[in-house]
Amino acid sequence: MWHITKREIYDNLNSLRFALTTVLLLSLMLTNAVRHLREHPKRMQKYNEAVTKSLDGLASHAADSLYMLAQQGPGKLYKKPSSLYFCAEGGEPLLPDTIEGGSPFGYAEHLRGVWKLKYPDANINMKRVGPDVTKVDWAFIIGYVLSLIALLFTFDAFSGERERGTLRLMLANSVPRHTVLIGKFLGALISVSIPFTLAVLVNLLLISTSSAVHLNTEAWGRLGIIFFIALLYTCLFLALGLLISTRVQRSAVSLVILLLVWVTFVVFMPSTLASIASEFSPSLSSEPFWKRRNQIQEELWDKYGRWLWSNEVNEETLTAKSKFFTKDAEAEERLNQERLTEKVAQVQYARAVTRFSPAALLQHLLESFAGTGFERHLQFGENTQRYAHQFREFVADTDRSDPESLHILGVREGMTKKKILPEAVPKFEDTLDFNKDFNARAMELLLLVLFVMVLLSGAYLAFVRVEV
Amino acid sequence: MLLTLIRRELLDNLMTFRFAAAVFITLLLVVANTVVLLKDYERRLADYNTALKTHQDKLEEYKAYSGYELNIDRPPNPLSIFNTGFDKQLGNQVQVYHAFVPTLWDAQKHGSDNPFLNIFTAIDIIFIFEVILSLIALLFAYDALAGERERGTLRLVLAQQVRRGHILLAKYISSMICLLMPLLVSLLLVMILLTSSRSVSLSPDDFLRIGGIVLTSLAYLSVFYLIGMLISEVSRRTSTALMLSMFVWGFLVLVYPNMILAVTSPSSPPRSQIDSAMNQMEQVWTELDRERKNFLVNDPVPGESIWFGIGASGRSSEYLIQRTSKLNVYLKNILNIGKVNERSESQIPHAQNYFRFVEPRIIGTAEKTWLLRKPRLEDIFVRPAGIDKTLLKLSPIGIYDSATQAWAGTDLNGIRDFFDAARQYRQIVINYFYDKEVFGEQQWFSANPGAVDWSTLPQFSFKRSDSSINMKRALPDVCLLLIINVILFMAIFLIFIRSEV
Question: Model's pTM, two decimal places?
Answer without folding.
Answer: 0.90
